[in-house]
Amino acid sequence: MKPSPHTHLKYKIAVSGAAETNHCGAEALQLTKELGRQVALQGAVLLTGATTGAPLWAAIGAKEAGGFVIGLSPASSEIEHVKKYHLPVDYHDMIIYTGFGYAGRNLFLTRSADGAIFTCGRMGTVNEFTIAFEDQKPIGVLSSSGWMTDDVIKKIIDEAHRGSGKVVYEGDPARLVAKVIQLIRKEKLIKI
User: Fold this and answer.
1) E runs forming strands in the chain
2) How many CB atoms lie within 10 A of CB 117?
3) Could you give the 3-state DSSP secondary structure of residue 104?
């Protein structure tokens, strides 16, 4: 992707996944780091829930590739973020302390993103997915990264009886990010 003169219009892609990752597949760490790396390499800004596990792995990948990472914390301050929630401050260029708790943070995160990509996750990831789906956001699902990927998301979509949404599935992080960016571009007035 060629650099845009409109840096303030860079696409914002949220990567959502489990903070606690013991249940994730063996390749989830490397695949999720590569997701973050690809978000950066393909010219987008990475948004995370400013937490541990999969979102942190994506942030590490993005920072290692020279990307820009914004975290949205459930806490109302840095002190609360670290001491109450026990969340990291590393690998983020900016952390926004929402003060909204986890549920409010999830809403703020998905609404702030132009598109969202889901990797191995749990209940909070399901919450972020359903918000993004309801908001008709472009969504990518990293196949084979562990629980809450292909089968679970497909079942949620099927059981909801609301159509298939703007959801793409892919096991390769580079192709997945490219597919999500294509979906985002369809919804933008200024194409970057």
Assistant:
1) 12-16, 45-48, 69-73, 94-97, 115-118, 139-142, 167-170
2) 30
3) helix
4: tokens are: 């845009």
Close Cβ partners of 138 (under 8 Å, ≥ 6 residues apart) = 114, 115, 116, 166, 168, 180, 183, 184, 186, 187
How far is it, in rounded angstroms, from Cα 46 to Cα 33? 12
CB contact at 8 A, 192 and 6: yes
pTM: 0.92
Contacts of residue 27, Cβ cutoff 8 Å, sequence gap at least 6: 144, 145
116 sits in which H/E element: strand 115-118
The pLDDT tens digits for 37-80 are: 999 999 999 999 999 999 999 999 999 999 999 999 999 999 99
Fold of 12-185: Rossmann fold (3.40.50)
The type of residue at 41 is L
